[in-house]
Amino acid sequence: MKLLVRNLSRATTEQELRVLFSEHGSVTECTVVLDQETGYSKGFAFVELPEQEEAQAALKALNMTSFNKSTIRVKIANS
């Protein structure tokens, strides 16, 4: 299941997100969306966990929590 993670600190890396979400299950994909012109983060990312139960647990545990000095929002990504 693919999750959308919004309101990320611009300094957040894919590795940091992978570590955060791996506490709830195996992460198969993690992509911080970058601005094509500047190369800097746009403040959101996609994280994929193959097991629906793990993804739901991560969503429930991490939505509206503080991470890297920002309150992140996690929801199911529209495919």
UniProtKB/TrEMBL annotation:
The keyword Heme does not apply. Residues 1-79 form the RRM domain. Keywords: RNA-binding. The keyword Transferase does not apply. PROSITE patterns: RRM (PS50102). InterPro entries: Euk_RNA-bind_prot (IPR050502), Nucleotide-bd_a/b_plait_sf (IPR012677), RBD_domain_sf (IPR035979), RRM_dom (IPR000504). Coiled coil: none annotated. It holds the Pfam family RRM_1. This is RNA recognition motif domain-containing protein. It comes from Vibrio gallaecicus. The lineage of its organism: Bacteria, Pseudomonadati, Pseudomonadota, Gammaproteobacteria, Vibrionales.
